[in-house]
TrEMBL record:
Residues that span the membrane, as ranges: none
Coiled-coil stretches noted in the UniProt entry, renumbered to this chain: 86-113
Coiled coil listed as a keyword: yes
Protein name per the record: Prefoldin beta-like
GO-annotated cellular components: prefoldin complex
One GO MF term: unfolded protein binding
A Pfam family per the record: Prefoldin_2
InterPro entries: PFD2, PFD_beta-like, Prefoldin
Family of this protein: Belongs to the prefoldin subunit beta family.
Species of origin: Dillenia turbinata
PANTHER family in alphabetical order: PREFOLDIN SUBUNIT 2
GO BP terms in the entry: protein folding; response to cold
Length: 149
C-alpha cells in the first residue's frame, strides 16, 4: 500500500496515517452535525420568541439582548430583526447540510479507496436500539413542555 500513489502527493504512506485521516474526516462530520444541531436549537428559540411577541401590540415595550447589553425597544422594531436572524440561521443550516453531504461523500470515497469497514460489537448493536427508543421519548417530551408555556 505504501508504494501506491495517484500522483497528487496526498496519499497516506501507512495504515496509521490512513486511520488518522479517516478519524479526522469523521471528526469533521461530527462537528458539522453538532453545529447544525446548535443552530436548529437557536432557530427553535427564535420561533418561540416570534410566536410569543407577534400577537402583542406593536407599540408595546420589549427588551433585546445584543452583545451582553439589554436594550429597550418596541415589538414593532424587534420583530423584523428576529425574523431576519431566523432566516439567516436557516440559510446557514442549509449550507451546513450541503457541506455535510459533501463531507459524507468524501468519507464514502475514502472508505472505498482504502477498503475501510466499521465493525460493531454485539453490545454496540444492542445499545443502538435503546438509543433510538430514548431519543424518540425525548422528542415526545419537547412538545408537551412547549404547550404548557
Amino acid at each position: 500500500m505504501a508504494s501506491k500513489s495517484s500522483g497528487d502527493g496526498k496519499d497516506p504512506i501507512n495504515e496509521q496515517m490512513i486511520a488518522n485521516m479517516y478519524a479526522s474526516l469523521r471528526s469533521e462530520i461530527n462537528q458539522i452535525y453538532s453545529k447544525i444541531t446548535e443552530l436548529e436549537m437557536e432557530v427553535s428559540e427564535h420561533s418561540l420568541v416570534i410566536g410569543a411577541i407577534q400577537p402583542l401590540d406593536p407599540s408595546r415595550r420589549c427588551y433585546r439582548m445584543i452583545g451582553g447589553v439589554l436594550l429597550e425597544r418596541t415589538i414593532k422594531e424587534v420583530l423584523p430583526t428576529v425574523h431576519r436572524n431566523k432566516e439567516g440561521l436557516e440559510e446557514v443550516i442549509s449550507r451546513l447540510n450541503k457541506a455535510l453531504e459533501k463531507k459524507k461523500k468524501e468519507v464514502a470515497k475514502f472508505e472505498a479507496k482504502y477498503k475501510i469497514r466499521i465493525r460493531k460489537a454485539d453490545n454496540d448493536v444492542k445499545d443502538e436500539g435503546g438509543q433510538k427508543e430514548g431519543s424518540a421519548q425525548g422528542v415526545l417530551v419537547g412538545p408537551t413542555v412547549g404547550n404548557d408555556q
